[in-house]
Amino acid sequence: MSRFWSAGVADLTPYVPGEQPQMQRLIKLNTNENPYGPSPRVLAAIRDALGSDAEALKLYPDPDARRFKQAIATRFGLEVANVHVGNGSDEVLANVFQGLLKHDKPILYPDITYSFYPVYCGLYGVAFETVPLSDTFEIRAEDYRKPNGGIIFPNPNAPTGRAIALGEIERVLTDNAGSVVVIDEAYIDFGGETAAGLIAKYPNLLVVQTLSKSRSLAGLRLGFAIGHPDLIEALERVKNSFNSYPLDRLAQAAGVAAIEDEVYFEQTRQAVIASREALVERMTALGFEVLPSKANFVFARHPAHDAAQLAAALRERAIIVRHFKNARVAQFLRITVGTDAECETFTDALKEILAG
Questions:
Q1: Quick check: 330 and 336 in contact, CB under 8 A?
Q2: How far does CA 68 lie from the centroid of its chain?
Q3: What is the C-alpha to C-alpha distance for residues 157 and 300, in angstroms, rounded to an integer?
Q4: pLDDT, tens digit, for every residue of 86-125?
Q5: 154-174 as b/e: b if 16+ CB within 10 A
Q6: Beta strands in the chain (DSSP E)
Q7: Which of 269, 325, 224 is nearest to 36 (CA)?
Q8: What's the CA gap between 214 and 268, in Å, rounded?
């Protein structure tokens, strides 16, 4: 460490993103990117926003991203006052941790979940307590019936892919009426049921989504939160105390187009769901235990083969998957659902490795 660092920097444990290797002919199944490109309407919107002479880029974008917020509000039957947007759902979540989850009591989140949560806690000084998943890696509503300064969990959970039913989320909301409950819905469009419809009923509910997964815009960094205007105001105050322009002009235009193109969205998400079910069937036939997934990835282990060794063997064949070292899931691999051809190549490689 350097003597010029601010106090506390050396104590941070930064988030480690999924590997983005620069390899030729690589099948990349490690970071849950959508195998299909964004809507053609997105590309057209970017071209229109750029213009023929790029004059628009000399001007600042709308700091409020009003058109993007309105598109989100319209889709969910809400008002603009119910919407906060940011540079990917990671930035939105950072605003959430700073603006809504820093209280005297610890927040609660699952022991196996999105690994950015403890990073935010360390960065913002948020006390936390992890809540163990069940033996079958499920989030249980009754486990969150304890004093807390807020609750956050993904639905579907990551990296397990398991979803919690909307009725169970209502139990958590009812049991914790005095706390903010954040449902991180990064993967909701691949088979889960969004909690967005509960916002009018529960002022303590905040729903966070991203356009990186089901809208194929991981490269543009677009995310949003929807909830009661009082919650949104806190996020807006944090955002405008840090960066008034988190979304550039092109990203905002792309976001509007992506949200409004429901036909393409439905077509591609259903294609991913169908590919996931076929992948699960093939992996099960190879002897893998695959957790029930409502995400664009599967979480699986083989009773007779070490996960780290399987990941290494796949990498030798230019196929990359994600392996986590947490003790409870150290024998699992997380595999992104690719195209049907990529999934077939992946399972063929597994068959060869298992036979060897």
A1: no
A2: 19
A3: 14
A4: 999 999 999 999 999 999 999 999 999 999 999 999 999 9
A5: bbbbbbbbbbbeeebbbbbbe
A6: 27-28, 83-86, 107-110, 128-131, 151-154, 181-184, 205-210, 223-227, 289-290, 297-301, 319-320, 322-323, 333-336
A7: 269
A8: 8
